[in-house]
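Incident log, support desk, overnight shift.

02:14 A customer reports that sequence design results differ from what the structure should imply. Their input is reproduced verbatim below. On-call engineer (initials T.W.) acknowledged and began investigating.
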């Protein structure tokens, strides 16, 4: 059974200033998504599912359906505030969905095989898809053995502003803890993150999550259970976020899942900010020049 690639592409890009998922960064007009799907296909994936914001659904499909037709199966789901499990009551003042954990949950009804989760605006590299694909090909649908591709923190920063990362701890190759840190940024000779308006140092060699996970369909049931608890606990907090790392951490602590750390030495790049685009274009061109990608990946 070939695994599925779930791409979280519902963001509107408030910091970026546009719909970065569809921005052209390749020599033939490719987006980062194109390269992720290209890497996934050659790593053995059989389907791609996109999580979209309704505002970009039509434009997105108009671009990617012609490109992907005949190359890989596709499916689409919408991440909306109304997309919650039966019986869940939400605060009427909530105006946006609940983040990455919720984005995965809305795909529950269209994925019935082991699957990987990635962000639409992160360039992960060929090796990362090979690592996660090889790992998931061995898993059955009811396995609670999951995987995560981790990166060295210093290899994942933007030159143009702060980022959020899940900082990981491991033991004998297994993830033992992951904590979401926000506002991580280079500051002189050190890297810091901000919490409660206080800046803290963080080790440049820390292994972090770039939201590249490998799960089986069992994860959806675990995710829904945690989401119900999350909603109940945050009924009055209209800005609360439901993150994948928080759910993974909870499963680890309860001994309900094992998560293997698959480490990549690649340097991350992406388009968190508009100024990241020029750097990303140059890095993609370098990979094309080295023969890692063709000049036109869909020709």
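02:41 Re-run completed on a clean worker. Output:
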């Amino acid at each position: 059974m070939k695994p599925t690639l779930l791409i979280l592409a519902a963001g509107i890009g408030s910091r970026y200033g546009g719909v970065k998922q569809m921005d052209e960064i390749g020599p033939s007009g490719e987006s980062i998504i194109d390269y992720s799907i290209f890497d996934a296909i050659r790593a053995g994936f059989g389907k791609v599912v996109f999580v979209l914001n309704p505002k970009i659904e039509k434009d997105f499909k108009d671009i990617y359906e012609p490109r992907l037709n005949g190359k890989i199966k596709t499916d689409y789901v919408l991440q909306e505030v109304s997309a919650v499990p039966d019986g869940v009551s939400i605060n009427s003042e909530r105006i946006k969905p609940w983040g990455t954990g919720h984005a995965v949950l809305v795909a529950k009804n269209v994925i019935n095989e082991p699957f990987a989760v990635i962000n639409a605006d992160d360039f992960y590299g060929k090796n990362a898809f090979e690592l996660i694909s090889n790992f998931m090909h061995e898993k059955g649908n009811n396995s609670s053995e999951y995987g995560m591709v981790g990166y060295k923190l210093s290899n994942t920063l933007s030159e143009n502003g702060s980022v959020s990362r899940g900082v990981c701890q491991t033991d004998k190759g297994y993830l033992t803890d992951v904590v979401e840190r926000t506002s991580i940024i280079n500051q002189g000779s050190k890297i810091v993150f901000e919490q409660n308006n206080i800046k803290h140092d963080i080790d440049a060699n820390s292994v972090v999550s770039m939201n590249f996970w490998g799960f089986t369909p069992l994860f959806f049931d675990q995710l829904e259970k945690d989401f119900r608890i999350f909603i109940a606990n945050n009924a009055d907090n209209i800005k609360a976020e439901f993150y994948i790392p928080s759910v993974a951490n909870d499963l680890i602590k309860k001994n309900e899942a094992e998560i293997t750390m698959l480490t990549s030495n690649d340097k991350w790049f992406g388009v968190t900010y508009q100024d990241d685009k020029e750097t990303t274009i140059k890095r993609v061109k370098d990979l094309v020049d080295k023969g890692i990608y063709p000049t036109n990946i869909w020709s």
